Amino acid sequence: MTNAPGGPDPTGAPGSRGDRASGRSGYLDGASSEPLHPAARETLLAALDQGYADPRRLHGPARSARLLLDNAREVVASLLGARPDEVSFTPSGTDAVHRGLLGLWRGRSRQGSSVVHSAVEHSAVLHAADWAGAERVSVPVDVLGRLDLGAFAAAAGAPGVAVAAVQSASHEVGTVQPVAEAARAAGEVPLFVDACASAGRLDLPEGWAAAAASAHKWGGPAGVGVLLVRKGARWRNPFPGDDRVDERTTGFENVPAALAAAAALQAVVAERAVVADRQRRLVDRLRTAAAALPDVEVVGDPEDRLPHLVTFSCLYVDGEALVTELDRRGFGVASGSACTAATMTPSHVLEAMGVLTHGNVRVSVGRGTRPEDVEELCRVLPEVVAGLRAQVGL
Amino acid sequence: MTKPVARELDCRGMLCPRPIIELARHIDSVPVGSVLAVVATDVAARTDVPAWCRMRAQEYLGAEPAGDGGTRYLVRRVS
Do A223 and A113 sit in the same domain of this protein? Predict the structure, then answer.
């Protein structure tokens, strides 16, 4: 509309309007947040008019809201392999992680106080344990980012352990963790599973006492986390209680968003086989293209991994410059390099794996990513990397 | 330390990937078999010097504290 006619934005500016008009999607950061699934949008719009009332009240509109909330809970429970009374909707995935981990931790206060966790957990796990003042025992991973099960068993078996945490799969490098084996190795110590990166994409692994997921990672709206607490697990609210429908969470329920999250999950699980297969092929193509570049290391397990993401590091390249240059060419990707982080420290995940932390990018394909989008990235990647190296004389 | 250092690069104050770029530029300035040291304050060097050695088939010998808050990373040129 305000764009001059005559084709794509000549500056190639971020989110270039020309690209969008031609249908090309350079958004390759679905692992950070998926665009809203069409099924979620439809449900959300319908539910906005029906799910506004307080689901705790006893009048008609409240009963409607309550019905929608219970419906969302049942759908999510059945898709994640849980019972409805094991599901709580939280204000975010991060909040679900905090509540899941610390609730188990509090429930075991008589048995111990330390938290055993894989070295590659999301920072939400590490922050939660630090906030609680718990001693943290970090268990190493191998160069692919996979948990050292022997070391994990030894750490979980030590006296004074309250809870252990192992993610279902790495949000940063895609490696799937041996959660069921870890749960067996943990014995009586309850296992918290952060499933935010994999929920909807892979079945939730067995063995969790509590687990967390995040709707915007599977195409639901932001602001909806899912906390699962296994029936019989000792869980005590680590935060102030709230007299709501669900005693494990807090605040006025966002009923329309919860229902939209459930609708998105249902759609994503239904189309999963087809989408994951397509994403796997796109990621394989990217892995091959990145690995063919000189002095580039593709990280994470090549086989046992999330279907939709690939991470690689380029020697001598500044991560921020790489992300910025790709953005200039219309591609949105993430990075774990120090210069791209608010803390100016490299990703603790890459560090724990012992892989190169600079020149790092994570590319994640969405359900709408097409082969030509990936081909275009594969085409420009060599010249982008070579160009940045040339700037430093290498 | 007992390992004789043929040359030391002062990369204090440089941010990643600068210390690694300096390492790559100067590795050929020491003879095969001898040690090049990189002193860096950037925390990424802790991971990136060993990773560079693995990717470029050089030998990482370890790290030790250096002055001014830096860390000295020792690399033996093997090729």
Answer: yes
